[in-house]
């Protein structure tokens, strides 16, 4: 069912690893919605963007990107759809937080494009690992940890070097590579502090392997572009 009003979460301040491509994507989304007759409601804490310019979105809120503030906007605007994937890591995290807080269910707002559970599986390192295993994809030996003590125990089993991957971060933020125990302590501490859920994946290093990267776009009708 086509939505009549959609809330778009912006990415906030432009930082390294979360840059202007989200501003461009959000701007194009607002224009596309207008062509389709869908009202766009944009919330962003950064006024120095194209998407917050006059004439892009139908309604613009320059407000802090917090669950409390967005809940108030949802209550006021009553959108029937949420587009969380154009706000970078900020938008993804807020969409999950809004779902956990019961805001989306309370006001009957559905996540468009990417379901909330899919965001969870993609962002939670352990859930993503299990999904790969379930579909038969080989993955390096790894384990999720939530403390430095656990990180040391897992590394003793896997062996150095290891890759540190924090959950719910973008562009490698908080991640690292450890070849010594001193580097492990430093990288794991940073990763745990960076992850919003204080979780990191410690992964067997495959440094030196040949890397082949595929980017796939797929829609609800199973049309794919590789």
TrEMBL record:
GO terms for biological process: glutamine metabolic process. The keyword DNA damage does not apply. It holds the Pfam family CPSase_L_D1. InterPro entries: ATP-grasp, CPAse_ATP-bd, CPSase_dom, CPSase_preATP-grasp, PreATP-grasp_dom_sf. It catalyses: hydrogencarbonate + NH4(+) + 2 ATP = carbamoyl phosphate + 2 ADP + phosphate + 2 H(+). One of its GO terms (cellular component) is cytoplasm. Residues 129-220 form the ATP-grasp domain. GO terms for molecular function: ATP binding; carbamoyl-phosphate synthase (ammonia) activity; carbamoyl-phosphate synthase (glutamine-hydrolyzing) activity; metal ion binding. Keywords: ATP-binding, Ligase, Metal-binding, Nucleotide-binding. PANTHER family: CARBAMOYL-PHOSPHATE SYNTHASE [AMMONIA], MITOCHONDRIAL (PTHR11405:SF53), CARBAMOYLTRANSFERASE FAMILY MEMBER (PTHR11405). This is ATP-grasp domain-containing protein. It comes from marine sediment metagenome. The lineage of its organism: unclassified sequences, metagenomes, ecological metagenomes.
């Amino acid at each position: 069912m086509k939505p009549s009003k959609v809330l778009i979460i912006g990415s906030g301040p432009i930082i390294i690893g979360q840059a202007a491509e989200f501003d461009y994507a959000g701007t194009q989304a607002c224009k596309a919605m207008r062509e389709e007759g869908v009202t766009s409601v944009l919330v962003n804490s950064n006024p120095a963007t194209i998407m917050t310019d006059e004439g892009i979105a139908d309604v613009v809120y320059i407000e802090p990107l917090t669950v409390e503030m967005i809940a108030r906007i949802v209550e006021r605007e009553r959108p029937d759809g949420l587009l969380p994937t154009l706000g970078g890591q900020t938008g993804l995290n807020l969409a999950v937080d809004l779902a956990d807080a019961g805001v989306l269910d309370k006001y009957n707002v559905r996540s468009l494009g990417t379901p909330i559970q899919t965001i969870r599986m993609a962002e939670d390192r352990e859930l993503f690992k299990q999904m790969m295993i379930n579909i038969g994809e080989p993955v390096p030996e790894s384990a999720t940890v939530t403390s430095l003590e656990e990180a040391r125990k897992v590394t003793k089993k896997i062996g150095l070097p290891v890759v540190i991957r924090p959950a719910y971060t973008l562009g490698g933020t908080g991640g690292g590579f450890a070849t010594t125990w001193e580097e492990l302590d430093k990288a794991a501490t940073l990763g745990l502090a960076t992850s919003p859920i204080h979780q990191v994946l410690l992964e067997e290093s495959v440094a030196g392997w040949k890397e082949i990267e595929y980017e796939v776009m797929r829609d609800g009708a199973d049309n794919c572009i590789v």
